[in-house]
TrEMBL record:
It comes from the Eukaryota. It holds the Pfam family DAGK_cat. GO terms for biological process: ceramide biosynthetic process; sphingosine biosynthetic process. SMART domains: DAGKc. Coiled coil: none annotated. GO terms for cellular component: membrane; mitochondrion. GO terms for molecular function: acylglycerol kinase activity; ATP-dependent diacylglycerol kinase activity; ceramide kinase activity. InterPro entries: Diacylglycerol_kinase_cat_dom, Lipid_Phosphate_FormReg. The lineage of its organism: Eukaryota, Metazoa, Ecdysozoa, Arthropoda, Hexapoda. Residues 58-201 form the DAGKc domain. It comes from Allacma fusca. This is DAGKc domain-containing protein.
Amino acid sequence: MAKVFKVLRNNWKKSVFAGVLSYYGINYLIDRRKQFLIMRALCEEAGKQGQMPLPIGAHNKHITLFLNPAASGRKSRPKFEKFSEPILHMAGFLVTIVKTERVDEAKELAGLIQKTNIIAVAGGDGTLSEVVTGLLRREDASEAAKTYPIGIIPVGYDNQFASDLLKCDSTDEMQQISQATMAIVKHRVEPKDVMEIRVIDVPESQPVEEVVAVAPSEDNVETPVTEMVEKVEEKPKPKPVYALSGVRLGMFREALKRKADMSTILGDYFTTFWSFLWTDEQIFKAEIRYTPSCPGCLKCFKEEPIKNQNTSFVSRVMSVFRPRQAQEPRKPLVENEQCGMWTSVCIETPEFNIRPQEDGTLAMEIGKKLSTTDFILQGLKLISNSKDTIETKIGFNEAEIIPIQAPEYCSIDGDEFEVRPFYIRVLKNKLLFFSPT
């Protein structure tokens, strides 16, 4: 034993290196072993679920999955193949994988998809927004929204909507992805609100000459009298964009975008400090017209018409013996005098966000003005999901936002868009998503 300690003391550099290497190697093997055991248990559970009969009216054996290979630094495909695809196959699904190769390809394909039972999205918030936009731009959008439930495989960089939907306590990617996949296997759907965003088209006018009269001259020669008038050029109406997580613009958005472009080798705190330090000061000035938030009253409540479904005689007879689902009693509706009334306000802020709320409304988050030091400190607090920068919160159902002074770009579900006047509203319970609860 003394010889061993003597060798370690004489070769302490090699001993330290071997110890550190052994420590990380053992931890890596332990993590791989845990992942193997968890995936084996989930695959066994998925196999049992695949042998169970489906709920009445459910046809969920064919999945069309949109995979964004460029998401998460091109790590999305290995994550999906390792933690999600085996579970789907063990559950007996027929999976058709569509790999996107360019921007807006998922949007175009979602607008054409027909022969499938489930739509799944393996990517981030941007890929999910493209699929939702393509689905709701269809001519049969109302029918497609109820026909194709959407499953989310969070393998992207930004997965805000997936985190809110899945409510996974663990930060481990393997557990988040596998839990999202098991939600599809168990076929538990939950309706979610969607934000509809339309650009307010401001027509551009150009002066042109137009003949307004014909005046005779002294030589009895008719001379046309012209004057300058403004001719309005009609542009094609922009198509709406549909979002799930929200709209974001301002200094924090620019700083976080700069941070995302930096290398993660330097650490989260250093990249946050450096990106927030070199972000220029920006001010967002806008005139906003909005209707105050109303979760539901006598004015805005609309009874959905009952569709006449063509069923066979045998189905109608058998439906008498099927147990009926207990319906929850409806809350009594009240009359809200402010429902639908438009209110105007002008804002000036370094940060402006729009996010959906749990009661089926939207909220504008107006940030407070910060010094450079406070801006950096608040950026470091964002690592722990702190939201101390919000000064005012305004709830609304629909709004028109006219920028007066604004940054060049904003983010809608993580995708970059040019800042223009826009109209936004909430579509309550528009789409069905697979949820673990």
